[in-house]
Design a protein that fits this description.
about 325 residues; single chain; alpha+beta; 2 domains
Length: about 325
Amino acid sequence: MNKQREYSQEVSIKHEVNSDDGNLDIGMQKGNLILVCHGDDQPDQFAGWLEPLVNSFERLLLRASEFDVDLNVQDGCDSINDVMEFCQQLGIQFDSTMWEGSLTSGIYRVGWLEVGGESAAAAQGLGLVRSLEEHVDNAVRSTVIEELRRIDDLEEFIARTATDRPALLTTIESLRSSLATAEIALEAANQKLLGVAESVSQDIDRACVRLAAALLSGESRREVAGPLVLWDDGVVYAISSWGNTPIPKGSSPAILLHDIHKSGRQVVLVKDKTVIGGWLSGPIYRRGPSDISGWARVWSLREKQERAFSVDPPEYADSVRRIHQVLASSS
């Protein structure tokens, strides 16, 4: 893709797309665009269909670098040098803005695709990866053959071919199988993820029962049930909001928290306001998932930046920080 065209694409959407609440979530829509990737300097969070393609591209990029090969589909085309350029080949448009906050500085990349274009982009990405894979195969072969042609001594030639040929064949076979392996792994991961999510939800349900039993019996012990924590000071702490996303409705923690409130018991409410990037118009927060299984590690999760909590009542702020540190260290 022509660089000038890429730049005009980026600029053309800069003022059309904006984050109303400062949050970015894969799959969110703005007009006829859907968010498929974003990250600081380079995208590092991707839609489910895009991530395995990016992983395959990065493996090819590493192999091309090892053999000093330009990663392009054919001679005369611009090289594809990074993940963002790969995504642009799939029709993903990037909105980029300077972020000059206390936590990060640089350019935050936000990738958008036209709504309904996921299938076509995925098919195009699959074809592009295969074309790049073939290009790298041929380039590696040519590089090795050229090196062998420069050998004048017969004994050196025999020694080099004896060691290089198996290694070359192994490298080429690895490249050929990388995409198929990634596809199989993705399908297996999706199936495993469904099972894990169900199992995690059941674990949180059981933990809620234990927490409720401890409250009824008046025990002071540590019990973690997703976003709810009963600590050994006898106080219940609840991360009730994660990047402006509340505890999923209908989940065991949400029901239990409602009942605890009705009982009149003191509850410390915590809002996670951890910044993972931002626009000039405001910060971007890490957002909680819509399924309660994704909240299993909300207390113990570590971020590149320090976790930021808003605590009510505020005098419990030190306790909240201490609980997070203990759970994060033991996870």
